[in-house]
Each structure stands twice: as structure tokens, then as C-alpha cells.
């Protein structure tokens, strides 16, 4: 009798090795990996009853764990509507960058300033600042780019975004009210579009101020949102996800990347720029 080939799913190391995950979170991540990686897909529609059957959790517990994983930016959940206009359902995918475990956060500091090559002291300080940002992320909930804004500032940005998307609407007032209502209700697709608009604005502000200037030995070439990093998840500087990135290049063609979660954090990283 011919022996049947054993089937298996390649589960990312970052899921198996991350000691900060609870057992319930790991179970949800493994099931999403099974339904996506296991079938060669980037995302899959998974019902709460499927999560119940696969993990043994109740539907309410699965919802709570999924919410936690979204807040930690470990998964992406998108609402999809059936072509016939039927009820919507959620599609799940793993956040890019979980193929391998996160790198160590240790930093080697020079023993003496006298032995430090030109530019390295600045670069080392930036690495330390980057690590402070990464450490803060471990204790703070940063589920979207608006986490640093006050409630008043969030309302202001929401109004500006609603004005922007409603400008060509036949009935500007009613369409704007609809957009603001969707934001208040945390409608997933609306929030993603709102975040993309805000990120583009923030990156544009940062680029006009810092692009073409130097941080230490590195010329700042570009400042861009995390959405532009998809497809580069295996690069070490994208292992620990941020909302905003800046890339610099030295005269000997070496590149470095800084990551931050707000305009203020990126400005702190790029402090001390020069022409």
C-alpha cells in the first residue's frame, strides 16, 4: 500500500517563539496561518463558528482575542461584502513581517568617544532612540496612527478628512455626516482610508522638512507610511512594525531605516539634521 504524503502548514517562527502571546492569542494566530499559509492564500474568510471549532473557545472569547491581536497589529481584519449584496463577513490575514521572530533589541555602544568613527556616535544614539520607541510599544496600545492625538485633534482631523472625501459628493453635507458617523462607529474600511489619508499628510509634512538633509552620515532619501513596506516583510528593519519610516543612505551606499509611530516620534529620531 502506497504511503500517503503527510500534510502540514508552515507556521511563522514569530508566532511560535513570541513569549508575550497568550495561549488563546497563539491559537487564533495558528488557525489563521492554517487557513491562509496552509492553502497558499494571503487572506481567508473565517467565521466565529470556525474559530470556535478549531480552538475550543466560545465565540465571545474569540472576538475578544481577535480584538487584542488587532490592537497589537498581529493580524489584519477586513470586512468583505458578498457580490449578491448579502451579509458581510470578515477576511483575516497575518500582519506582514511575522515570517521570522523579531530581532534582539540589544545595542552595542562605543567604549570611548575617541575610538568612535565620524558619524557613528550619532547613528548609535539614533539606534538607542529607536529602541526606546520599540520598548514603549510593548506597554502602550497603539492600534492606529491617531494614538498620540488628543480627542479634539482627532475630531479636527476627522472633519478635515470628511471634507476631503465629500468635496465631489452631490450632497456634501449629508455625505460628510455619513463619513463622520462611520468613523465614530469605527467602520473598518472607513478607518483604513482615514488612516491612509492622514499618513500621507504626515509623511508629506516630514518629507518637506527633512528629505535631502543629513542625520549623521546618512542622507535622508525618503519618508513613507507602513503601507509602502508590504512585500518587504523579511527586511530586518520591518520586523518590528511602525506606522512611519525614514530611509537614509551614506556616501558609501549603506542604507539605514528609522521607524516611528507618530510625527513627534519621527521628528525626535531625525533631530539634529544638517544640510
Structure description:
By secondary structure, this protein is α+β, with helices and mostly antiparallel strands. It has 2 domains: 13-94, Winged helix-like DNA-binding domain superfamily/Winged helix DNA-binding domain (Arc Repressor Mutant, subunit A, Orthogonal Bundle); 113-269, no CATH class. It is 43% helix and 14% strand. It is built from 9 helices and 7 strands; from the N terminus they run ααβααββααααββββα. The protein has helices spanning 13-17, 23-36, 48-55, 59-71, 120-139, 151-166, 172-184, 188-210, 263-269, and strands spanning 44-45, 75-81, 88-94, 214-215, 218-225, 244-249, 255-260. The longest helix has 23 residues, at 188-210. The chain is flat and about 60 Å long. The protein starts with 12 loop residues before the first helix and ends in a 6-residue tail after the last helix. 18% of the residues are buried. Residues 99-120, 137-142 and 231-239 have low confidence and may be disordered.
The string of secondary-structure elements, in order, is HHEHHEEHHHHEEEEH
Shape by Cα distribution:
flat
Number of discrete domains: 2
Query: Proportion of β residues?
Result: 5-15%
Q: pLDDT below 50 for ≥5 consecutive residues: which ranges?
A: 99-120, 137-142, 231-239
Main beta-sheet annotation:
4 strands, antiparallel
Mean of residue pLDDT values: 76
> Helical residue percent?
40-55%
Distance from N terminus to C terminus (CA atoms, Å) equals 74 Å
Rg computed from alpha carbons, rounded to a whole number of angstroms = 22 Å
The secondary-structure class comes to: alpha+beta
- State the oligomer: single chain
Number of strands: 7
Secondary structure tally, helices? 9
Amino acid at each position: 500500500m502506497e504511503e500517503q504524503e503527510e500534510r502540514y502548514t508552515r507556521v511563522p517562527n514569530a508566532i511560535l517563539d513570541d513569549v508575550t502571546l497568550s495561549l488563546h492569542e497563539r491559537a487564533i494566530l495558528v488557525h489563521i496561518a492554517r487557513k491562509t499559509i496552509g492553502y497558499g492564500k494571503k487572506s481567508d474568510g473565517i467565521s466565529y463558528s470556525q474559530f470556535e471549532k478549531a480552538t475550543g473557545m466560545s465565540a465571545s472569547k474569540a472576538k475578544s482575542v481577535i480584538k487584542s491581536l488587532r490592537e497589537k497589529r498581529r493580524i489584519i481584519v477586513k470586512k468583505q461584502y458578498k457580490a449578491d449584496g448579502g451579509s458581510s463577513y470578515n477576511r483575516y490575514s497575518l500582519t506582514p513581517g511575522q515570517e521570522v521572530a523579531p530581532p534582539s533589541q540589544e545595542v552595542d555602544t562605543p567604549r570611548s568617544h575617541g575610538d568612535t568613527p565620524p558619524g557613528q556616535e550619532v547613528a548609535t544614539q539614533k539606534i538607542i532612540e529607536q529602541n526606546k520607541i520599540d520598548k514603549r510599544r510593548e506597554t502602550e496600545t497603539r492600534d492606529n496612527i491617531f494614538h498620540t492625538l488628543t480627542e479634539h485633534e482627532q475630531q479636527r482631523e476627522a472633519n478635515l478628512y470628511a471634507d476631503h472625501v465629500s468635496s465631489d459628493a452631490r450632497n456634501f453635507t449629508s455625505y460628510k455626516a455619513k463619513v463622520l458617523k462611520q468613523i465614530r462607529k469605527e467602520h473598518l474600511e472607513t478607518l483604513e482610508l482615514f488612516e491612509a489619508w492622514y499618513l500621507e499628510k504626515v509623511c508629506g509634512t516630514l518629507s518637506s522638512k527633512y528629505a535631502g538633509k543629513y542625520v549623521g552620515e546618512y542622507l535622508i532619501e525618503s519618508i513613507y507610511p507602513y503601507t509602502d513596506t508590504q512585500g518587504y516583510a523579511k527586511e530586518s528593519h520591518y520586523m518590528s512594525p511602525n506606522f512611519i519610516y525614514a530611509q537614509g543612505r551614506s556616501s558609501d551606499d549603506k542604507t539605514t531605516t528609522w521607524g516611528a509611530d507618530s510625527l513627534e516620534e519621527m521628528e525626535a529620531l531625525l533631530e539634529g539634521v544638517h544640510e
